[in-house]
Design goal:
The protein is mostly helical and 266 residues long. It is built from 17 helices and no strands. The chain starts with 17 loop residues before the first helix and ends with a helix.
């Protein structure tokens, strides 16, 4: 499985789970927003206690409270929990996490959108059942929208989520993501990335390319990449970067799918 990028650094505080209930009813106070995020950043044992006390459900509700600082802290806390284990992720999914994420991807604040994409990248790195819940939630079109139109940091996190879906999902799930236009949007992000940092995008593109080849039909993924010569050139140059995994994946893509096209570039 692909490990999503590390979470943002949040202040570590000791906070009783009852504070979540207090925050839900006291939305005009800003003093506890960072401790809310710290709830989920204090170790597996404390996270387990939070979830056993139904703190996960409270955090999910706080994402919809309407106050920016609390929403942001709650999303960060949920992302930290989901980064822990499939068991923790499942508790939050059962509490309605995916339905809560859909409006957050359209939030007016870019930090909320970015942190929501990071959270979703953790969900998309989960087990098969959780990937099914992700796809069935109908959140993916909104995720592709962020990948297409948002600021780079939000698009970067959205790219992680999309690539985790492509790599970890079933053939049908990955094809669904491809049909939503994910490949072209991933190419846009790829061209803005450092060569050594783009390995996870190459992993997603490679899965999409392999699916097209196995279908024994016209490979629309190949055509999409060939039409974006800037992206193809970026992949070709990544073969020579310092990151061995990214370099090897780029070489694999070029050798199998684009050798003739790269010869034209040269």
């Amino acid at each position: 499985p692909h490990t999503p990028p590390p979470p943002p650094t949040h202040q570590h505080n000791t906070l009783n789970t009852n504070t979540l209930t207090q925050r839900q009813h006291n939305t005009h106070s800003h003093t506890s927003a960072c401790p809310v995020a710290a709830l989920a950043n204090c170790g597996a044992q404390h996270v387990r206690a939070i979830l056993e006390a139904r703190g996960g459900s409270k955090l999910v509700r706080l994402t919809q409270c309407g106050e920016l600082e609390i929403q942001t802290a709650a999303v960060c806390a949920l992302g930290n929990i989901v980064a822990g284990s499939d068991e923790h992720t499942q508790v939050l999914l059962d509490a309605g996490l995916m339905a809560a994420c859909r409006p957050l991807l359209h939030h007016e604040n870019s930090t909320v959108r970015k942190e929501t994409c990071w959270l979703l990248s953790n969900v998309a790195a989960g087990n098969a059942e959780q990937l099914t819940a992700f796809v069935d939630s109908n959140v993916t079109p909104s995720l592709i929208r962020v990948l297409s139109k948002d600021d780079f940091q939000s698009r970067f996190e959205a790219a992680w989520a999309v690539c985790n879906l492509l790599v970890g999902g079933t053939r049908d799930q990955a094809n669904y993501v491809i049909q939503l236009g994910a490949v072209a949007e991933l190419l846009g992000v790829l061209k803005e990335m450092d060569h050594s940092a783009c390995g996870f995008v190459l992993d997603g593109l490679h899965r999409a390319l392999c699916l097209g080849r196995r279908a024994h039909s016209c490979n629309e993924v190949v055509a999409t990449i060939e039409e974006d010569m800037g992206a193809l050139e970026h992949i070709e140059q990544t073969q020579y970067c310092a990151n061995q995994l990214a370099s090897e994946k780029a070489k694999q893509i070029i050798d199998v799918f684009f050798q003739d096209s790269v010869d034209v570039l040269q």
